[in-house]
Description:
The structure is a single chain. The protein is α+β, with helices and mostly antiparallel strands. Helices cover about 35% and strands about 30% of the residues. The strands form 2 sheets. A 6-stranded antiparallel beta sheet has the order 1-8-7-4-2-3. The protein has a two-stranded antiparallel sheet with strand order 5-6. The longest helix is centred in the C-terminal third of the chain and has 24 residues, at about 140-164. The chain is globular, with a radius of gyration of 17 Å.
Amino acid sequence: MQRTEILTQNQVIGLIEFILSDSKNELYESYSDMEKEIIRFGNSTEFYDYLLKGILNNVRNFTFGIYNPASKGKFYISKIELNPKYCKGNTCRYRIDGWAVIFIDLKLVTNSNDVECRVSVNSKKRAENWLHTNPELWDWKNVESITRKIINKLKNYTQSSSVS
């Protein structure tokens, strides 16, 4: 299940506020900076500050993951070992993992205030094809319900902006 739309930066903040309005949703950066722990965002202000700092440092692509404990399954943070010879002396970074993590990919559009926003999640069928290597027991109805709500909110932004 996936959807991509073009939003303004303010609409992206609104989408994150919507996601975090469900107190069970946990929002994380998907990959940490080198030698840093994964960041979990407690509110939209923390997210906005992170996004603004990235933009000021010329970051153009951001990826975040949403985990909801009611979806059950296995969610974890993995350490990625790096070769310091090729990574400016850095030895590690972290990433989030789990079959039913809902991903939000943001790509800043050059010379614009617009952001390409993609929402995606693995399907139950895809996870079942890999069941022999990852036998997590996710609540797929919950995962799909959360993803549909986020995608509907994403669509609402673009429909309302095309009307105005």
